[in-house]
Amino acid sequence: MSSFALVGNPNTGKTSLFNTLTTSYEYVGNWAGVTVEKKVGDLKNGGGQLVDLPGIYSLHPLSRDESVAAQYLMEESPSALINIVDASQLERNLALSIQLLEYGRPIMLGLNMMDVAESRGIHVDPLKLEELLGVPVIPLVARTGKGSSQILSMLKEAPTAAMPEFKLDYGTAESAIAEIEALLAPIPGLPQHRWVALQLLAQNPVILQALESTLNMNAVKEIVMRGETELQQAGHKTSLADWIRTVRNGYIDKLCTAAMDRSSQKPHNLTERLDAILTHRIFGIPIFLLFLFMLFKVTFDWIGNPLSDVLDGFISGPISSGINNALDMAGASAFTHALIVDGIVAGVGGVLVFIPQIFILFLIISFIEDSGYMARVSLLMDSLMEAVGLNGKAFIPFIIGFGCNVPAVMSARSIEQPKDRLLTTLLIPLMSCSARLPVYALFAGVFFQSHQALVVLSMYVLGIAMALLLCKVFSAYLLKNEASVFIVELPPYRLPQGRSLMRGTWEKGKGFLRKAGTLILGGSVLIWLLSYSGPGGFGVDMDNSFLAKIGGLMAPLLAPLGFGTWQSGSSLLTGFLAKEIVVSTMNIIYHVPNMEGLQGQIALSFTPLQAFSFMAFVLLYTPCLATVGVIRKESSSWRWTAFSIGYAVVLAYLISLIIYQGGRLLGWS
């Protein structure tokens, strides 16, 4: 089967094009040597598979995820490459295109965002560009699908297409290139030798590492030294790597002069006007907090809660009644009946009623990502993050953590400095993920009904504040960071496409549904069995069950925090599997038919102050099992993994203690 690779800079519409060209896709493990997921899709015309490479600016990597592209080109042999290029940022995008053209495989340039370029008065001539480069250049508007059918038809012919005859003249460096090509000649299975030689001269660490055992590196160093001496003698006071970049940049300038007309270019007025407000030095962060507040108003008060009530009525009404009737007709035993109704339906159903809030949250996060605002938030937070020992780039994984901590930890690999990356990984679990949302929704709906959005916002702000405070402490005493440079691209603001938003929301939300069908289902069965059985056998009273005994061990420790009951202890213990299971456990323990019944039981068991203390504890205590697993994978250290659990439990205890005991001193209840 033919395999094609999609390559391009970040924010060029690569994901939109991938979604348009493929019918379905999946993550098929990780790329070798790095924990970056490998995304492969089936082309719509059945012409093969499309591999989506991470967005990069150059084949010379700055971070672990950027190394994937060079590694792929070195080890694989794709039938063809699709290089997607932003027509409104042509010069910068062509720097990668030149390196791909030198690779020597069939390639086509997808000239995306032609509509954006035209709207800004930038006129790119695809035919002229095609003539100069000698490869197909296809105008695209990836978000609407325009031009994608032409790419699909050309991909069918790509395996038999001629190799591009692209060769830049590097002048004085040509002798060094030829010498390294001669060294590479005996080594089998390499891509085009000229491309490998150029990557070696440019000191690409991925290529150097791939060849260190098969190539005489001392000979390469001697060739580089001779080449640089020749450059000096020719009057070029630069290294070979810089000379190669200079030649490429000169060629790109000539290309753009010939194929692009900027004479009527207009300033990007809308983006500039929005940035003047949204990234304002004083008002930017308050605007971001106001945006979060509105997010929670929509998620809870305006849309989420009414939909959740409808879903709760459906689960506790027709579904529960139907299951009960089916079990009665089948003559199910009392044990089976209790297991399915009191265990599975109560446990899983108690979490599923929060689907509307979770999907609304993911929809808005997808909107933030696709609109271009996400990059602005990281820029806004840069000075604050720098003050505590990180830079603004670390705030992007924090925001992703609002959805789920697992992909947030994985996204930290884009941070270049190892210590910054580890510090970010350790702090991400303090971000309020969607799994905590059912707990917030339950308690805020009971005790803070008229201020739900504000109370939930306070949990998110508390998590961020604790992360920043601990970042300062950890960077000062545990992980003294090296100086790092923060570079972020601010793409123009765009109105996201509905199809892209829906697909992004589904990709985030289906993980929650998958957990409901696996981890939460299994956890609910286990919790029910522990509540149904005890030292006296099966069918015991709940207070005499194994679950009560286990929770009772934790109760004295939790008493100073305001929730020293076995019910709370059991719920928090099972919440280690997944934070949603806290609600599942309570549903099973209190043996209620619907969410209204659970809310009634919670109102009898907690006061508002105890509820707020409990919510803060759920926010800060140990990461869930999946997050612990990915922290271990990313840090490659059981010591740091154990530390991430230990510090979180201690922090949760201290903050809840301060909230409850401080509240009591102030006369709150």
Shape: elongated
The helix/strand class is alpha/beta
Strands, total number: 11
Gyration radius from CA atoms, angstroms = 29 Å
Write the layout of secondary structure elements.
Elements: E1 3-8, H1 14-21, E2 22-30, E3 37-43, E4 49-52, H2 67-75, E5 80-86, H3 90-101, E6 107-112, H4 114-119, E7 123-124, H5 126-133, E8 137-139, H6 148-157, H7 174-184, H8 193-201, H9 205-211, H10 217-233, H11 240-259, E9 260-261, H12 269-278, H13 284-302, H14 304-330, H15 334-352, H16 355-371, H17 373-380, H18 382-387, H19 395-401, H20 405-411, H21 418-427, H22 437-447, H23 452-477, H24 498-517, H25 519-532, E10 533-534, E11 537-538, H26 546-558, H27 566-574, H28 581-590, H29 595-605, H30 608-620, H31 625-635, H32 638-665
Parallel strand pairs: 1-4, 1-5, 5-6, 6-8
Antiparallel strand pairs: 2-3, 3-4, 7-9, 10-11
Task: Give a short synopsis of this structure.
The chain is of the alpha/beta class.
